[in-house]
């Protein structure tokens, strides 16, 4: 289903799926997602965030879950090459990503704990400008 402008987008698909959720478990899944589409960030950032929450990024743990054959060296984090790659590690635990988050916090002049779960991290950063 298209949006008001007649364009098809992830956002319009999300609205259709949210409206179509008729069972309580389907509604719970929709409610678990934070208000990604209302965030004041680029569409690309919204899409990546949505993919993080849905487990749709091609990180090594997600590829293994989909039966993609990977060698032991292939599963290492592409940023630090020290730990196995997962969404949580790559975005929130990896020493390289923590350096980036620290630089961002320093840049915006805010100091907060960095969470290791995507939902908690999103909640922290979606309210940080308020
Ligand atoms: Zn890493």
Structure, described:
The structure is a single chain. The protein has 130 residues and is an all-alpha fold. The protein has 2 domains: 1-32, no CATH class; 33-126, no CATH class. 52% of the residues lie in helices and 0% in strands. The chain is built from 7 helices and no strands. It has helices at 10-20, 24-32, 43-54, 60-65, 87-93, 95-108, 118-126. Helix 5 crosses helix 6 (95-108). It is flat and about 45 Å long. It binds zinc ion. Zinc ion binds next to loops.
Please give a quick description of this structure.
This protein is an all-alpha fold and about 130 residues long. The protein is built from seven helices and no strands. It has two domains: about 30 residues, no CATH class; about 90 residues, no CATH class.
Question: Helix and strand succession?
Answer: HHHHHHH
What structural class should be given to the helix and strand makeup? Answer: mainly alpha
What summary fits the major beta sheet? none
- List the quaternary state of the chains: single chain
How many distinct helices?
Answer: 7
Contiguous uncertain segments of 5+ residues: none
In total, how many domains does the architecture comprise? 2
Strand content: under 5%
The small-molecule ligands in this entry are: zinc ion
- Radius of gyration, whole Å: 17 Å
Q: Gap between N and C termini, in Å?
A: 34 Å
On the 0-100 scale, what is the average pLDDT?
A: 82
Estimate percent helicity: 40-55%
Shape: flat
